[in-house]
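Preliminary data (for renewal application), zinc ion complex.
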Amino acid sequence: MATKATIADLFPDHTGMILVAKDVSDGLPRRITEVANGGDCGCVCFGCGRRLIARNRFDPTARAHSFAHRPEDNVVDCVSSGETALHMRAKEIIAKHCRVTLPATTTPGLDGKPVEVSPERSIQLTDVHLETAAGEVFPDVIATMSDGRRLFIEIANTHPCPPEKIEKLDAMGVEVLEITVSSYQRHPLDELDDIILDTAPRKLIHSAEVKVKAAEIAEERRRIEEKERQEAERLIAVYREPPSARHRKAAELVEEMSLWGFDEFMDADDTRPSAFIVPRRQWQAAVFYRFMDTQYPATVSPIDMVDRFRERKWEKPDLVFMKTEMSRKIAALAEDFKSAYDEVLAYMRRLEKAEVVYQKPGKTFYMTHDFKKKLKATLETLEVADANREVIKGVYRHIEELLKPRGARLPDFDGWLKQQADRHDLAVEEFLTDDDLVCGAEENLKEMNRVIDKRAAGEWDELPDDLMGLPLVDLVNGLMQAWHNAEESVGDGWRAKIEN
Ligand SMILES: [Zn+2]
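Predicted structure:
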């Protein structure tokens, strides 16, 4: 009678009972229900090959029928009966057909996605035998492939091949195929051929071809990384080149910002590396002006700003359109490296910290209301100062004109103006926005003007006490002397006429 024992039957049930044994007459599995009772069962243990006793005569409802090792054998070490039986069955099937299907193999490619190494294929096998000591590892089935290499076949019933075993097999450099039969527990042992040969899930735990391909890919990756590293070094050198261009308009913005007292928002003497070809202060001034020009709710984002700079070709050409991955690689090599975007963002953050701008969610900024107010007041003050400067300068120039015929020259106006401010411990702009001081200076200069006019006409008048540092005394006396001389020479003429 053909046995329909299944894979599951081979293994001790949940109470540890052995239910299937090997018939010594034909080597086939026999169920406990099929054999004679006691020592006459004619069966041996699949695991250890020892004689077994069948216990199947008593009432199965009272106690489960099962095979047992003989008490006199004192067996404590036999736990592999089922495993061995399954391996024997697999070996028989493979030996009978002399072949097995290998699965397609892949290995992670450069992009991490699997690359096929070999397709699924059926291979011819010879010399199929059961586990033999091969080094210290006992593979389930060993066979030889047509190219002479050995193939170890692991039959995984419930648990996959443990990692430590895979590691050892890997070190041996043999091909290792694992066939997983865990989902075929209810299959009769004599209907396992297709399952073992072709259909059960299988994978090549170790494959020389996969190893070679993986090594090739690793080498290729190394080559690419080396090339990228060289490119990164080149770009770092570019990044560290000093600015190579001056932008006239931007330079004017810098000067204006400086005039307004906003030097603190620019890096004037900057020698840090940069992604830009213009000096840092120039693009900073451009960012600052962009904020001035933008009315909330419009905002300025670092991306917008970099796009504008890109249009103006302010970015170092080699660094434009750099891939994020490359800039990350460069940053890993050079801590000081920043992309144009990062530099602009860092500047906007700095303005934010100084409460010049606010940041809206999503890295976009606008100038604060308070700062705009401050800016407006500054500009108004500067306008007043400019107007006052022109007024004082007008009178100053007029005096200069009066003295010109005498070959006299007044000090340079800007230098003189600074002296006036210094006298009051003020900056020039502060001096020019102090109404009292400006009026005083204007009145005083006008008074000098008036006196000079008078003296030039021969009339005596006192110069003001405060000559504001102007060297007028000798000049004015000289003017008067010239008038008298002219008058006297006219008188001499008349006298001569009378006397003749
Ligand atoms: Zn045994």
